[in-house]
Amino acid sequence: MLFWLSLKAEIVINEVCYDPVSSDMGYEWIELYNNGSTSIPLEGAKILSGGSSYVVQYTLPFFELRPQRYLLIGGESLFNAQLNYNFSFQNGGSATDGIRYVSPDGTYTDTVLYDSPNSNQLFDDYNLPGTHFAPDVPAGYSLARIYDGYDTNNCETDFIAEAKPTPGLANRIHCDYALGTYNILQENNYVELDLCLKNLSPFVPLISAELTITQNSILLAQQAIAPIPAGDSLRVNLSFTCNSSPITVILSLVDDPDSTNNVLLIPLNSEAQSGIWINEFLANPESGNQEWIEIYGDQISQGTYYIADNSTSQIRFTLPATSGYFVICQNPDALLLRYPECPAGSLILAESWTYLNNDGDCLVWKNETGTLDSLIYTGAEIIKGVSRERVLVDSTAIWQNCYSAKGGTPGLPNSSMPQTELPDLGKVVLTGSPCDAKSGEKIALAYNFPSPANRITCNIYDLSGRKICSVADYALVNAAGVIYWNGCKQDGNFAPRGLYIILWESQNTADSKIMRKQFTAVLKG
What we know:
The protein has two helices and 36 strands. With about 525 residues, it is mainly beta. It is globular.
């Protein structure tokens, strides 16, 4: 029998949404769960909301909740709610708020306290001012128990911020898998990898994980990982052939709450750089986005770090003692909205920020021991809305423009050159028209040139001849790739529906001959 069964009470608040994306009125909800083995009558039970103090929000009518079943209470907008009520829960923000269930006879409570500090001394289930708090979740998230009915009366460990709420359904099981120690046996192009996988959670997932090993985005090995027991570890051994470039190991488990410990970048020879380095940065974001810097480390020490520019202004941040990708930015929540694939656990809120120069700069990463890594970039390398990524070519680090359609890969392995969408050598091809830009579609201009370095200018005009947007302005790019127009004008607002002219000019850096192309594209919606 799994140990969490001993932690079950009777009726618990299993999941709650107190800050919907839309108007709160009619969209807030609470889910109760019966942990017991018998049906429990709920008539007369109360739901309380706590801000400055607890006040009664709702008294339950006649309802009998069967064992291991859910009761969803919320506004009429919830089609699957069994009971309807327009709650008005506190949204957190500056002090602890709470939600409490009180049994019909008043002898039993179940309480979730969220946000801090507990300035108003709201009581927990021990009838004492609470000292452990669940997080204050972003709009649209719910607070959910890490497993249905899991209850230790410690809100900090019992609840998790749930990005994909499950009202009236079983909570997602958020098992934290991690990549552990490894050993490499290498002989010429043959590699044998011995790797430790860990389940850091107090329960076992219901599904298998997937372990993949890639090199320069080429799949080398893949293996399904059967569920690992709670708190246990598993060693796997994989063999494959590859060249001397570093390999990327990714352990993927659905609903893993911390993906920072699921990626390893492993060098394969003594010449390949290992350690810590600046891995990607966005210096010129499009309207609505923000600058950010991604760093990678295979052995990072906990402490304060700095990234300084030419003017010696500094970006200051604190890192945990771990390994993996970390994305330094000013607004983690906004970055997740822009790059939803970015692992939330990789985001680090900068304690201070200095803006990156679009016309070139020098970035130096350091701590109290000295310089850890540095890079220099020029204005010609910077394309609006496109990051610069570090890649290894024959064990030498170079920088390239990101190939991803999103313009960046924060918190993830860097992009690789598109393999299927490139045109014939010497050609430029437009795809994606007509384009519904407001739904996230983009116009793509794919190019493929014989020269390893080229400069591109790409401007968008309306039918009256006015330039509305510059996608690239004499930008230095690689031999092949794709640039995108997101359907926005230079000010970041969407251009109206209609026909647009795209003028393209490209020139390799060793030749004065210029290629000029004219395309038309249609925006719809």
